[in-house]
Amino acid sequence: MAKQTIIPFGPQHPVLPEPIHLDLVLEDEKVVQAIPSIGFIHRGLEKLVEKKEYTELMYVTERICGICAFGHNWGYCHAIEILLNVEVPERAEYLRVMWHEMSRVHSHLLWLGLLADAFGFESLFMHCWRLREGILDLFEKTTGGRVIFSVNKIGGVHRDVSPEMLLEISTVIAGMKKEYDELAKVFIEDVSVKNRTVGVGKVSKEDAAALCAVGPTARGSGVPFDIRSTGHSIYGKLGFEPIVEEGGDCYARALVRVKEVYQSMEMIQKIIAEMPEGEISVNVKGKPEGEFMARVEQPRGESCYYVKGNGTKNLERMRVRTPTNINVPFLVSALAGCELADVPVIVLSIDPCISCTER
Amino acid sequence: MASFKMGKMVMRSLFGKPATLMYPVKPAKITEATRGHITINVDTCIFCGICQKKCPTNAITVDRKGRVWSIERMKCIQCNCCAVNCPKDSLLMETTYTAPSAVKITDTFQGPPKEEKAPAAAAAEA
After folding, report:
1. What is the pTM of this model?
2. A160: which chain B residues are within 8 Å (Cβ-Cβ)?
3. Contacts with B35 from chain A: Cβ below 8 Å
4. Coil, helix or strand for B71?
5. ipTM associated with this complex
6. In this structure, what DSSP letter does residue A23 have?
7. What is the mean pLDDT of each run of 10 residues along chain B (126 residues)?
8. CB contacts < 8 Å between A and B, how many?
9. Does residue B2 sit within a domain?
10. What's the total number of domains in chain A?
């Protein structure tokens, strides 16, 4: 047996946007085991729930993460709406799904850029992020914020989107799709991208299912698991089908995200075409009582929001289970047996969001 | 060839304008909906204190007796919660950002003195 060495990876590493630490046990250049440790940016959300009113928590939940801010807020609002027996107007649901899918486009473009950066393709990285700016500008025009939207409320949404604005969104997305075609082609066909991703960090379908992987990470290994396919909110009306790739390697995971951007763009166009008229919010009265677990498909995977109310203005308990939290065992499994030089790409391939994980 | 997939895009970038703005020199893009900072119309404010209660970060302080409304700019998260809940619509979200600062700024607004009810009573007597 070769001599074993332990190399610390993170919490501060050029490839990591956020702090996660991995102890990599190496034999020569091969990783035999990866031992993760998290907890560098714990913020104590569960304790904060005791102090803040349930309406104030809206602003806390959307700050769990900067990239999937809208989904976190939506999941929390949905749970509270169920506890208060509130029926959200249809137009509000359409607007929420539109913003959520726009979040997915910008999150995946951000991730594709980071992946390109991880294997040293700087110009591809910058073009992905340049394209993403278009979506952020649309967010600012419709909600008032580029990252944190503060547009959801319990019982609907705060802001309506005018027909002219909807037309503008449609035009911008259509224009963006043309440019994205060029970028997607690079990710799908380029030799330098394939050299660094094909066959790297392979996890079988059985292992991915056994490790409870979620989101594009699971779908890249052939597990067709997507909360949107349950048809919650208006996804049933949109005829959603999850995108699944069988490869199980970093390339397959990238491919799922590349195709999901197209799917989300199509969904946004469909939502804009079918947007119903009507109210955007209803008045809400009462205090939440009982417990509920809401599930939302974030760009990174399934996210759960457990809410327990006791009839007072403060919730008794609130807990968020985020996709990266669940994908860490998958990451450890994918890292076993890989080359040291491939570690950054594999770590990125699960799209780690540590801020979400540690709440 | 496989490695020239981005040729067109790279050429466009080479001869096009930069995608980024030189921010402090050129002003940032601002839209009608941008949440920049909160302002108050103190003349219509009734100093009820709802905004202080609703503010999730406790950035707003309302002195009902002294008729003073103040906001800690660094604490405010531009969530628009106070403006939504204001019964008199005295609070407004402006589109411009407050200037960067090295110290924590508190903006204070002094309301006009409360109108005396005496003139109305005198008119009724007459």
Report:
1. 0.88
2. none
3. 144-145, 150
4. strand
5. 0.79
6. E
7. 71 85 80 87 87 89 88 89 88 85 87 68 51
8. 63
9. no
10. 1
